[in-house]
């Protein structure tokens, strides 16, 4: 006698549930990737134009990098080199086209590594995040971001000419 098996007695909705869940997951993943790409494009919006402005209005002949700096005013900081091969930083104002583009050469400010080493001496147990150049009025600043020993997100600002502390912001984490 041959044994015969019964056909599956699983309801059809149970068969379709994993397919629907997978389909919804793929839609959400695609939507998340789309939002991320759109946000990153907005973040880099105007970098190409700022690079061109920096090369037209300053001594920079090539551009290596463009970053954003939000202090009292919003700037694109264009890092590049001059014809003499010197590294320079052009500050291209955003929003107010009447302000001039400023250029400072690396040799005229405190070196990034020197500034970072000075900071490390004052905060040895801190967790470094990033460092970039900024401007506040007529003062060039090094902005150092890190997590301090009390688990706060900190922005420290140092005068880029002499390394003196200019100010800071400390953001504590919320427990809620």
Characterization of this structure:
This is Cell wall elongation regulator TseB-like domain-containing protein. InterPro entries: Cystatin_sf, TseB-like_dom. Keywords: Membrane, Transmembrane, Transmembrane helix. Residues 49-93 form the Cell wall elongation regulator TseB-like domain. The chain has 176 residues and is of the alpha+beta class. Among the domains are: 47-108, Nuclear Transport Factor 2, Chain: A (Roll); 112-171, Nuclear Transport Factor 2, Chain: A (Roll). Helix content is 31%, strand content 36%. The chain contains 3 helices and 8 strands; from the N terminus they run ααββββαββββ. The chain has helices at 12-43, 47-57, 112-122; strands at residues 60-70, 74-82, 87-93, 102-105, 127-136, 139-147, 153-159, 165-171. Strands 1-2-3-4 form a 4-stranded antiparallel beta sheet, covered by helices on one side. A hairpin with an 8-residue loop joins strand 3 and strand 4 (102-105).
List keywords for this structure.
single chain; 176 residues; alpha+beta; Nuclear Transport Factor 2, Chain: A; 4-stranded antiparallel beta sheet; 3 helices; 36% strand
């Amino acid at each position: 006698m041959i044994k015969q098996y019964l056909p599956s007695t699983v309801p059809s909705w149970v068969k379709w549930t994993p397919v629907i869940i997978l389909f919804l997951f793929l839609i959400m993943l695609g939507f998340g990737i789309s939002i991320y790409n759109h946000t990153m494009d907005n973040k880099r919006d105007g970098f190409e134009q700022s690079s061109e402005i920096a090369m037209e209005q300053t001594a920079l002949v090539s551009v290596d990098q463009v970053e954003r700096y939000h202090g009292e005013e919003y700037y694109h900081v264009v890092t590049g080199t001059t014809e003499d091969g010197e590294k320079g930083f052009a500050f291209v104002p955003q929003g107010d086209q009447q302000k001039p583009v400023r250029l400072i050469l690396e040799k005229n400010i405190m070196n990034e590594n020197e500034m970072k080493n000075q900071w490390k001496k004052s905060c040895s147990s801190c967790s470094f995040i990033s460092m970039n150049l900024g401007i506040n009025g007529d003062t060039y600043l090094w902005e150092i971001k890190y997590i301090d020993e009390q688990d706060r997100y900190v922005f420290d600002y140092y005068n880029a000419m002499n390394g003196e502390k200019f100010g800071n912001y400390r953001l504590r984490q919320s427990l809620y």
